[in-house]
Amino acid sequence: MSYTEKHENISKEDWMNRLEGLHIQRADMNKLIMNYLVTEGFKEAAEKFQQESGISPSMELDSLDDRIRIRDAIQSGRIQEATALVNQLHPELLDNDRYLYFHLQQLHLIELIRNGEIEEALHFAQEQLSEAGESDPTVLNELERTLALLAFEEPKKCPFKDLLHPTHRQKVASELNAAILKMENRESTTPKLSNLLKLILWAQDELDKKKIKYPKMSKLANAVIDSPK
Amino acid sequence: MMPIQLKAEATVTLGSLAKGTEDHIKALVDMGVVPVLIAGLGSDEVKLIEACLRCLRTIFEFSCAPVGLICQDENLPLRLLSLIPHSVSNQVCVATILAAGCKTAENQNLLCRQEAVPALAALLCSPHYKVQMPSLRCLANMCFQNQKVSAIVATSSFGGKSVPDLLVGLMARDKPSEMQMGAARCITYMHRAGAVSAEDPKILYRTLPCLVRLCKKDRPCEERVTAAETLAYLTEVDTELQRLASISNHLVPTLAELLHYQPEPSHTQAVQLTPSQTAQRLEQEVKTAQDMKQAAFRAFASLGANDEDIRKKIIETDNLMDHIVSGLQDPSQRVRLAAVRCLHSLSRSVQQLRTTFQDHSVWRPLMQLLQGASDDILTVASSTLCNLLLEFSPSKEPILESGAVDLLCGLTRRQDPALRLNGIWALMNMAFQAEQKIKSQILHALGTDQIFRLLSDPEVGVLMKTLGLLRNLLSTKPHIDHIMGLHGNQIMQ
Fold it and tell me: What is the CATH number assigned to the segment(s) B288-402?
């Protein structure tokens, strides 16, 4: 199919018209939103949304409580509390996923560094983390980056400052959340909405690879579509 | 803390320790942790039971674990089965534990008596992959070489579908390949135990194609090995299955690919390995290569067992005979055994013997193999030699030069009747229409005393072949004269 030679560049207007022509069911959208709220642990929002939309959640809302507490603990930097909660809830989870366990410990180390508790940080790293780096080179790499934070006067401005950024906490919290959902044999461990967004990124990537010009969605957060360049 | 909660916490800690290395498991087992955990299953406390089950499941995944304890007390499997309805975690653990404990025919019969089959059939229909997989393994272990249990499994059903139909469903192409493999293995065992016929469409149009597919080059190594071994077992005795398999989806070249396995070169590794990791990796690669060769040879041995055309096809595959010859000289004993079994199957082709085997100088490696071989290799190798000596073309020189006569005479003195039979049979074939000097060599090496001993052998087969040998030795007048001249006195007695 000599499609690529023949096609003309599509204008943004045409593109938007085509998009307008597609019809998405409201019920489907509501289900996606409910799935997001329930997976990520927004219990009150899920309850309210259930009242307002009539969509029932895919799991008992009370079962969200544990995950909410764990996520809260991580977002507030209380990593060891979060770890204890997970161990109570699912004793085998961290034993089976050593990499996740390492990430939790790494986050605790980061919190110690963030609070300026350098001695405790070094002590913790020596006692708990030095062995982890021995068997797995990836882990060793991440451990080295974390400890490098100690070498700088102002860690927030160093090359590894991403570790101190709040998004890192969120990343670990999501990782743990997904692992818990998997342990509970839930259907999806990440919100289906994120899969949809990934599909958009993938499709755009494929088009880019073939050097096709099209109106691209440059920012997912506000779904802004640019004119083709 | 209440005592029972303390017990549960302690059990959870043991479970954590069990997630360590094999040494940790050994230490736990040596301390007698397994009977304690089993006792814990008798409690009413749900958390304690769950913790015990999980810890037991982890321990029993290792070969050093005392799996004999599972079926030793008849009440234990019963108790385990009763715990199934309580949670998904229980289901996973119970199925895994029962699969590990099902080793002997007594185990199989016990589990069957205790109604494990309906329970497992229900678990096959679970929406959770991690429940289905150990259930498949358990059913397969129960059916293996057990006619009674296989018959019961074949007629069991759940949700309106018979277990064989459920298994076929799990072999569908959209299922994960480990699941397809597990289901195919299970139904193969049921067939070999007589519960599913060779003409059943489930075997012909589902199981066989599934196994052939899983042998393909794009599948992971372990999977290809298991698929080829299972295929070898499936087609071992039925000629029609052998025929169907040999024309399925390029099976013969696919199996030949197993013999060409090359591990990935280390420069494609993304991560640097430590020296001990590299050593481990190399060891693993050697084992994988051996597994693949063994599996391929076994599959070819089965495929070529009964049909001349199939043997021809196999022998004519590029480089196959070369691989068999190297296989006979492989450092690993199990590869040598598999290679000689393969050669044995192929040696049944009289027309091929004359040409192909000559070209590939199979003789020397075979003779080398026979020197100082273990008994199981010796039996198959001598049987192969027997067949190879049957061919009519003259060049038996290489065999004679490598000391075959003495070796075969030695076999006739062995305790094992199979070895004696092969020895005398091979000598008989060797003597057929042979030159005088060969006949003399045989007679001289064997000695008239041994011949007379063999004529009174308790095995009828041995006796018959000895008579056959005598007939061949004395087949022409000049030879008779010569032999009688040398040994006349003893013979007349």
Answer: 1.25.10.10
